[in-house]
Design a protein that fits this description.
This protein is of the alpha/beta class and 365 residues long. It is 48% helix and 11% strand. Bound molecules: 5'-deoxyadenosine (5AD) and iron/sulfur cluster.
């Protein structure tokens, strides 16, 4: 059929092909898309899903992104910092649990104390298991010098979502204060690549004002930037943000709207897998905010990475970027058991004790 021919084009797909696939709605056609993407996953990265234990160590943020629950102006949020030794203990737990890698995330800060703190923390984290723990850092926009210091300290992956590849749409989602510039974000991705990181990016899917053409362009952006890892997920309303309130007021957050964003999120995973082939793609927690089986569906649509939350239980409720975030009442052990059951239900296995780096990174190096 025409759809089968299109699915077989894979990395040769045009922008219009991407748009066509992202616009599918027929359940049988969607299943064909997910099956084709899962087959590419099986061939290029294997039916093995890797864990990146996620430590959200502080919710302080200098940014004011209009969609995000921990934006600077949200005074309802109680700000926290995790005690250094607690971070190291959680990281040791992560290593002992056989998670190959850790993701160190917080809000964005650029003060020298923070930069020094993160650098020293990275050095200590790399001592665990004699450098046995893969380490992804995810703390926003920094100078090239800072990125280089952290790389030299032992971080080898960095995750910075472009949020959208459309600068005009980006501008509608951020304050126009000179500190939320699309071009700066894009330049950061180029610096990270130059320094030698495995570079991750991604978008939010189903944003107000975002078109299917924008989403197709995001996937082409990943390709043009030669990205190694994709972390993307549906936009989910946070009730106490300007964008969240506008979306609710416009009547755009019905159950049908949420399901629509979930399905768009799954289609993005599948089409990205078909088009980029050998990159790592995360089934993110936001999928599960919209559907109890969201992350399993992500794995079946071609994702191969899960990020079990390792954050201390007492801080989880203070790290809410969006409403209905799952796993807030759980602790790390429960998240481990829950996710391994999810992986098994898909018919994959967990790549324990391995870093699970993006094969794409080594293809070009
Ligand atoms: N819905 C979905 N994702 C969000 N993020 C921030 N706010 C939201 C939201 N309301 C994502 C952004 C950011 C990442 C850490 O979390 O893409 O890069
Ligand atoms: Fe800060 Fe990131 Fe939220 Fe923006 S999305 S306000 S940078 S935590």
């Amino acid at each position: 059929s025409a759809l089968q021919a299109l699915l077989q084009k894979q990395e040769r797909m045009t922008r219009q092909d991407l748009v066509t696939l992202l616009s599918l709605t027929d359940p049988e056609e969607l299943q064909a898309l997910y099956d084709a993407a899962y087959a590419v996953k099986a061939e290029k990265v294997g039916r093995v899903d890797y864990y990146r234990g996620l430590i959200e160590f502080s919710n302080r943020c200098i940014k004011n992104c209009c969609y995000c629950g921990i934006r600077r102006d949200n005074e309802e949020v109680e700000r926290f910092d995790t005690v250094r030794q607690d971070i190291l203990d959680m990281a040791q737990w992560t290593y002992d649990a056989g998670y190959g890698s850790l993701t160190l995330q917080s809000g964005e800060r650029q003060d020298p104390e923070f930069i020094d703190y993160v650098e020293a923390l990275i050095r200590d984290l790399k001592k665990i298991g004699n450098g046995g723990l893969g380490l992804t850092v995810c703390v926003g926009e920094q100078t090239e010098e800072t990125y280089r210091r952290w790389f030299n300290a032992g971080a080898h992956r960095y995750l910075l979502r472009i949020e959208t590849s459309n600068p005009d749409l980006y501008a509608t989602l951020h304050p126009q204060d000179g500190h939320h510039l699309w071009q700066v974000r894009c330049d950061c991705l180029k610096m990270l690549r130059r320094i030698g990181y495995q570079v991750g990016t991604g978008d939010m899917i189903g944003l107000p004002g975002q078109t299917v053409e924008d989403l197709a362009a995001d996937i082409q952006f990943y390709k043009d930037m030669d990205i190694d890892m994709i972390g993307m997920g549906p936009y989910v309303v946070h009730h106490h943000t300007p964008i969240g309130q506008a979306v609710v007021a416009a009547g755009l957050d019905s159950e049908a709207d949420k399901l629509n964003r979930l399905h768009l999120g799954l289609k993005m995973i599948a089409v990205t897998r078909l088009y980029l082939q050998d990159v790592n793609i995360a089934a993110t927690t936001a999928l599960q905010a919209l559907h109890p089986l969201g992350r399993e569906l992500g794995l079946k649509a071609g994702a191969n990475i899960l990020m079990p939350i390792v954050t201390l239980p007492q801080f989880r409720a203070q790290y809410l970027l969006y409403d209905n975030k799952p796993c807030v009442d759980e602790h790390a052990e429960q998240c481990r058991n829950c996710l391994s059951a999810r992986v098994a239900s898909v018919g994959d296995r967990v790549g324990l004790g391995q870093w699970g780096d993006s094969p794409h990174f080594f293809e070009k190096n």
